[in-house]
Amino acid sequence: MIIESLHMKNFKSHQDTSIDFDTGISIILGGNGAGKSSILEAVSFGLFKQYTSKKIEQLITIGQKRMSVEIQFTSHGRTYRVLRERSKTSSKAIMKIKEGGRFQSLVSGDRQVTMEVQNLLDMDGDLFLNAVYVRQGEIADLIEKTSSEKKQMIGRLLGIDSLEKAWKNIKIILDRYKEEKIRLEGRIESSEGLKDEFQTKKHKQKELSIQIKDINLKREENIIESDLLREKKEILDRRSLEFEKSTTILKSKTDFLEQLEKTKKDLDNQLSEIIIKEEEINRVKPRLKKLEVLKNLQDRIKELKDLQKDEKKIVKIQDDIEHFRDILNENEQYYNDYSRLDDEINNLQYAKDQFEGSRVLIQQYRERRSKVEVKINQSLEKINRVLEKNNQILSTEFESVEEFQDHLSTFKPQLEEEIQDASESIQELKRELSNLQVKSENLDKPIKELERVKELCPICKSTITPQKRDELITDYQSELENNHQRSEILKEKLKGIEDKKKNLDTQHFRIQSINLGILNEYLKSVDENRQEIKNINSNLKELDEKMVILEKIEKDIAQNKSKLQDIKGNYEKYLAARGSLESLGDYEEHLSGLDEIKASIRELKKKISILMEIAGDSMENLPGEIAYLEDLSKKYQHLMGEISQKDSLLRRMDENQRLILDTLEELKEVQKVVEDSKYNKESHERVKKEWELKNEELMDLSGQKQLLVGQLHQLSDSIQTIKEKLNSLQEYETELKNLKDFLKLLNLIRDIYGKDGVQKDLRNLSRPLIEEKTRELFEKFNFEYSDVRLDEDYDVTIYGPGGESSLDMISGGEKIAVALALRLGITQVLSGGSLEMIMLDEPTIHLDAYRRQELIDLLKRMSIIPQMIIVTHDADLEDAADNIMKIEKEEGNSFLAES
């Protein structure tokens, strides 16, 4: 299988990422957390719906409702495309195949698509991950891990760990079924005495049935006798009921007659009382006619007094209005003066507020000027200290920075020129000394040669005489001495020039420490601060002018406030009088009201005069007379209420007399019925007693029967329970036999899944295949080794020119090659030898720098697998890549930044 493209939409941190893959080595590069590994997970999800999140909903980008993954790949020469979509509540999957340049639908649905991919690639999702997906650290683990750890890791890749897990899980199942076996054996053992108990209770059930039958016969006989007594009793009961009813009616009628006689007497007494009250009403009624006249007179007198009070009140208000008007006239001028002064004060206060900030500003400016003056003095002191130090360096006595700068601008270039001249002279003298030294060495060589070989010329190699030899030696020595003398002169001159240059260098070094920039900064700071003081003084001048105006305003305000205080009392009198006038109302309205009240008083006095004539002597104690007549009126009303019941009382007396006559007739009839009755109470009581005794005997038989029936039911339930237990016992025995057979089968299956079963067979079967594939792959790296072998624990042994070697005995690069070949060999075996693509997740992790570089070099030379996809944050792997894709992440969104 070769992956051609992958498109992720809202998959984890990838909102919309499309990647085109090619053959060769493709590097997916990015920092930790950038979303690289999500690409490999998207491949696994697209093909097999495999994912690492706890819930599939966690694959959807946070804040989104739906995600999708579309992967296009080739297999067996055909091109396929798989699309999987997922929301939080639904899913969709479709697989298409390319036919004639267009994609045609092949299957749809999650399960159907997954099955089609498994059939096409001949592997399921787990096998795909183990075969094609090389996890982080697996290559390093194949080098660094112990034998048991490597064996466990390879077992996981081969799926052997699932067999081990099954072997362990079967033990849990075995223990559970063994517990069930012990439980069944206990139940069977505890049920051994049930059969004897069942027979005993069956015999007891038969005895109880016979006893119940005997009791039923006795009850039937008693029921017949009881029925006869009951019929006789019911006849006597009816007679007793009739006798008691007649006797009760007789007593009731007699009592009712007595009550009627008593009522007749009471009604006669009430009628006598009403007649007396009628006579009293006739005496009171004439006297009540004067009450209305007296009450009317009393109301008019009260009304007259109220009007006279209102008259006095209005007169008082009119007097107050005239008084307050006088106060207003007296203080009106003061009121006007006060208002005018108050307005002037407010205007002056507003003007004062405009200038009030000037005081604060003056204080702030003065404080700021003091601080700036301090800074100027500090800067001048620093300038003087620096200038004094620089004068000491140059041995000068300049008092101004400008003079010092002018001197330094001339002195420094001259000094540098002198240093340059001295350096050139030194170099010239050193070259001349070097030449003299070479010449001396050239002269010294022939002298030594002449001293060693006395007959030959050291230059031309011709024969010479002793005289000539001595002459040559003398000439060479003379020239050598001249060179020596010249060298001494030059050395002395060189020393003098070097000492001079040293002094010049020292002086130049000291000049280098002179920093005119600092002086300029200090001067600049002084100029700026002086300019600021100038600005402050200008602002203070303007503020002083404003202060003159402010002081005049404050003086005017004080004078006006003093005047205001002098007339404040008159002003307040005016305000109080005006407020009082406003509350008293209009004078003319009060005058009109007074006229109306006086007219009403005159009219009212006329009415009172007329009423007084009618009242006569009663005027002497008008309230007492009214109170006496009102009490008399209440008594009259009370008597009228009582005599209003006279008609009703007469009707009741007639009705009571009629009832007395009717009751006397009814009493005669009831007495005749009682006399005609032939009821015998003693005979009746004897029959009732006999019937009750027979019922008690019958009840006792019913109780005995009920008890026996209860015992029988309880015994039947117990027999049924024992019967069910016996049936269960038979089921338990059958279940126990089946369980023992099943335990034998489980033990057999567990042995098959154990280390010595299928696990061992699978290792023995896969190890030679892995060894063969590893050998084939390792040979392609062109190392000088002839063979690679794997033992039962998958420890590696290699054979080369030096013989047999373990992993610990070979170089780091060779170890990486063996680990990579072993991992790819496992992949080849798992994929059936048709591996076209492999994915590596951070292959360099846990490797040191040397081994990481060795792995990169191996990957560069690899042409074993058509397509290799590597996810990494290691930028060094770019050297081994045919295609590079860089993944970046911004604000939680991963995207393809460069490819």
From TrEMBL:
Binding site for Zn(2+): 457, 460
UniProt keyword DNA repair, yes or no: yes
Cofactor annotation remark: Binds 1 zinc ion per homodimer.
Binding residues annotated for ATP, in chain numbering: 12, 32-38, 136, 809-814
Zinc-hook domain span: 412-509
Listed cofactors: Zn(2+)
GO molecular function: ATP binding; ATP hydrolysis activity; zinc ion binding
One Gene Ontology term from the biological process aspect of the record: double-strand break repair
Keywords (A to Z) from UniProt: ATP-binding, Coiled coil, DNA damage, DNA repair, Hydrolase, Metal-binding, Nucleotide-binding, Zinc
Subunit-level organization: Homodimer. Forms a heterotetramer composed of two Mre11 subunits and two Rad50 subunits.
Comment field on protein domains: The two conserved Cys that bind zinc constitute the zinc-hook, which separates the large intramolecular coiled coil regions. The 2 Cys residues coordinate one molecule of zinc with the help of the 2 Cys residues of the zinc-hook of another Rad50 molecule, thereby forming a V-shaped homodimer.
Protein name: DNA double-strand break repair Rad50 ATPase
Organism: Methanobacterium subterraneum
